[in-house]
C-alpha cells in the first residue's frame, strides 16, 4: 500500500526519517528534526524560491507545461473573450463571478473611490518633470496609507473591503496623474459615466474637448490587457506584497512594495525591452542576423521564454490577436511585421524549439501599448493597474490564512567566526576583495 510519506536517510548519521507528503509537498520545517549535530537542524536551501511553495492559494492555477492559466478555475481565454476587467477583479478578489446586481454594486463601490485627495496632486507636483511614472506610483500609493490611517485594521473585514475598493478606484487616477505630470498637462478629474478603462483613458488623453469618448476598440483592448495581467500566482511582485504584508502593515504600504518590485526590468520592464529589440532589429531582412546573435549567446530574444511556461504562454496568443485589433485602429506599425516574422523564424528553429522558448506575454503587449500612444516608461504602470486585483486577492488570502506568520527566511551563514575588536590605532590596513571594496566604498 503506497504511503504519502518520504523516507530520508541521513548518511552522516545513518538515521532514517519519515516525512509526511501533503499536496505533493513536504514541509521544510519537518527537516529540522534531521540533525548531525544537536541544535543544527537541516535547512532547505532555495535562493529565488525555485522549488518552494510559500503558501497555499486558491486564486490562480498555472500549468506551465500545458500552457494553462486559470483564475479561480476559469480559463484565461474565456475571461479575455467574455469578461471585463472589473468583473474579473471581482472574481479574483472574491472567488466567484458576480450576478448582475452584485456586479453593479461592485462597479459603483469602486467608482465612488476614483477621486484622490487634493494633497495627492501637490505630492505629484513635487516630483521632477522627468520622474519615472513607476517611481511616482510607488511614492503615491505608499502615501495613501497616510491619508487612510484606518487601513491598519487589517483583520477587520469591512476595512479590508474599503481599502480594496479604494485601491482599485484610485490606482488609475494616480497612474493617469503621473502621466499628465510628465507631460506638463493639467490633471483630469475622473469621469464616472465611463467604464473603468474608459475613464482611465479619459484621465490620460483628454485635452480641450468638452466630452472625451475613448475609441471602443482601444478601450476593450486595454481592458483585456488588464484581465491578462490581473494575476499570475506567486510572481515577484505578489511575493513581495505577501512578504511586506506579513508584517501586518496596511495594504497601501504593501501594494507600494509590490509596485516597487514590478518596477524592475526583469519583471514589469520586459515588454519595453521587447519593443527596443524590435526597433533595434529595424527591418524584416535583418532578422536572420539577429537570430544568429541570439544563438551565439550574444543577446537574448526579448519577449521569448518563461520560467513557468514551457509550452506556450496562453496570454501571448490572446495578445497577438489584440494587436491586430489595435493596429486596425491606430494604423500598422513596422514593428508588428518584424515581430510576426521573428516569431515564425524562431518557432521553426531548433535552438528555440529544443529549449521550449515561445513568445511570452511581453512579446506583443509593448507593440500594442506603443501603438496606443503610451510612452515606454509607462508600460509597467499599465501592468500594475491590471495586477492590483491579484495583489489585493493575495493580501486578503494571506491575512485570513492561519498558517501564515511574518515572513522570515533562514540563511546559510558563510562569514567570519568570532573576532576580537582591534582599536583604530592598532588596526592594520584591511585587505578587501574587489566585490567587498565596491560594497564598502
Ligand atoms: N533568448 C535566447 N535564449 C534564451 C532565452 C531567450 N529569450 N530565454 C532562455 N534562453 C535559453 C538560455 O540561454 C538557456 O540556454 P542554455 O540551456 O543553452 O544555457 C535556456 O534557454 C534556459 O534559459 P534560462 O535562463 O535557464 O531560463 P529561465 O527560466 O531562468 O528564464 C526568462 C526565463 C528569464 C524569462 C528567460 O527566458 C528570458 O530572459 N527571456 C527574455 C526576457 C523576457 O522576455 N522576460 C519576460 C518574462 S514574462 C514576465 O515576466 C511577465
Structural summary, described in words:
With 441 residues, this protein is mostly helical. The protein has helices at residues 76-82, 85-94, 100-111, 118-125, 133-147, 157-183, 196-205, 216-229, 236-245, 251-263, 270-281, 287-295, 314-330, 334-347, 350-354, 362-371, 379-400, 434-440, and strands at residues 5-10, 15-20, 60-63, 68-71, 74-75. The strands form 2 sheets. The protein has a 3-stranded antiparallel beta sheet with strand order 3-4-5. α5 runs antiparallel to α6, α9 (236-245) runs antiparallel to α10 and α9 packs across α17 (379-400). It is globular and about 80 Å long. The model has no long low-confidence stretch (mean pLDDT 95). The site of acetyl coenzyme *A has 16 residues, from loops.
Topology:
Blueprint lengths: L4 E6 L4 E6 L39 E4 L4 E4 L2 E2 H7 L2 H10 L5 H12 L6 H8 L7 H15 L9 H27 L12 H10 L10 H14 L6 H10 L5 H13 L6 H12 L5 H9 L18 H17 L3 H14 L2 H5 L7 H10 L7 H22 L33 H7 L1
Antiparallel strand pairs: 1-2, 3-4, 4-5
Helix pairs in contact: 1-8, 2-17, 3-6, 5-6, 5-10, 6-7, 6-17, 7-8, 8-13, 8-17, 9-10, 9-17, 10-17, 11-16, 13-16
Bound molecules: acetyl coenzyme *A.
Total helical segments: 18
Rounded average pLDDT: 95
- Name the overall outline: globular
Low-pLDDT stretches: none
Bound molecules: acetyl coenzyme *A
Q: Give helix and strand order, one letter per element, not per position.
A: EEEEEHHHHHHHHHHHHHHHHHH
Number of DSSP-assigned strands = 5
Assign the structural class, choosing from mainly alpha, mainly beta, alpha/beta, alpha+beta, or little secondary structure: mainly alpha
Amino acid at each position: 500500500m503506497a504511503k504519502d510519506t518520504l523516507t530520508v536517510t541521513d548518511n552522516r548519521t545513518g538515521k532514517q526519517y519519515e516525512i509526511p507528503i501533503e499536496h505533493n509537498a513536504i514541509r521544510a520545517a519537518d527537516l529540522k528534526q534531521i540533525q548531525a549535530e544537536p541544535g543544527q537542524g537541516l535547512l532547505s536551501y532555495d535562493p529565488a524560491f525555485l522549488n518552494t511553495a510559500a503558501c497555499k492559494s486558491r486564486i490562480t492555477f498555472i500549468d506551465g507545461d500545458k500552457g494553462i492559466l486559470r483564475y479561480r478555475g476559469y480559463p484565461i481565454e474565456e475571461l479575455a473573450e467574455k469578461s471585463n476587467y472589473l468583473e474579473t477583479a471581482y472574481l479574483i478578489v472574491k472567488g466567484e463571478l458576480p450576478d448582475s446586481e452584485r456586479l453593479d454594486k461592485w462597479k459603483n463601490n469602486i467608482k465612488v473611490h476614483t477621486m484622490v485627495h487634493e494633497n495627492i496632486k501637490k505630492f505629484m507636483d513635487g516630483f521632477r518633470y522627468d520622474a519615472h511614472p513607476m517611481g511616482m506610483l510607488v511614492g503615491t500609493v505608499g502615501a495613501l496609507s497616510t491619508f487612510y490611517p484606518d487601513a491598519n485594521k487589517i483583520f477587520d473585514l469591512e476595512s479590508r473591503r474599503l481599502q480594496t475598493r479604494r485601491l482599485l478606484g484610485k490606482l488609475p487616477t494616480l497612474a493617469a496623474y503621473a502621466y499628465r505630470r510628465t507631460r506638463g498637462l493639467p490633471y483630469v478629474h475622473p469621469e464616472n459615466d465611463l467604464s473603468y478603462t474608459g475613464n482611465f483613458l479619459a484621465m490620460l488623453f483628454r485635452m480641450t474637448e468638452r466630452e472625451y469618448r475613448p475609441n471602443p476598440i482601444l478601450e476593450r483592448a486595454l481592458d483585456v490587457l488588464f484581465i491578462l495581467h490581473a494575476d499570475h500566482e506567486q510572481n515577484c511582485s505578489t511575493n513581495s506584497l505577501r512578504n511586506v504584508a506579513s508584517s501586518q502593515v496596511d495594504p497601501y504600504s504593501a501594494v507600494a512594495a509590490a509596485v516597487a518590485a514590478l518596477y524592475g526590468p526583469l519583471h514589469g520592464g520586459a515588454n519595453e525591452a521587447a519593443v527596443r529589440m524590435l526597433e533595434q532589429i529595424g527591418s524584416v531582412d535583418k532578422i536572420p542576423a539577429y537570430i544568429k546573435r541570439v544563438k551565439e549567446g550574444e543577446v537574448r530574444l526579448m519577449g521569448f521564454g518563461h520560467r513557468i511556461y514551457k509550452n506556450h504562454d496562453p496570454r501571448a496568443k490572446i495578445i497577438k490577436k489584440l494587436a491586430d485589433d489595435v493596429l486596425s485602429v491606430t494604423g500598422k506599425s513596422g514593428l508588428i511585421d518584424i515581430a510576426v516574422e521573428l516569431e515564425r523564424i524562431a518557432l521553426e528553429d531548433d535552438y528555440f524549439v529544443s529549449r521550449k522558448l515561445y513568445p511570452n506575454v511581453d512579446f506583443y503587449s509593448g507593440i500594442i501599448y506603443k501603438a496606443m500612444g503610451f510612452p515606454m516608461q509607462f508600460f509597467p504602470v499599465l501592468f500594475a493597474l491590471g495586477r492590483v486585483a491579484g495583489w489585493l486577492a493575495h493580501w486578503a488570502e494571506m491575512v485570513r490564512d492561519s498558517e501564515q506568520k511574518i515572513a522570515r527566511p533562514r540563511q546559510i551563514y558563510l562569514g567570519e567566526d568570532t573576532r576580537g575588536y582591534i582599536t583604530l590605532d592598532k588596526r592594520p590596513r584591511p585587505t578587501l576583495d574587489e566585490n567587498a571594496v565596491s560594497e564598502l566604498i
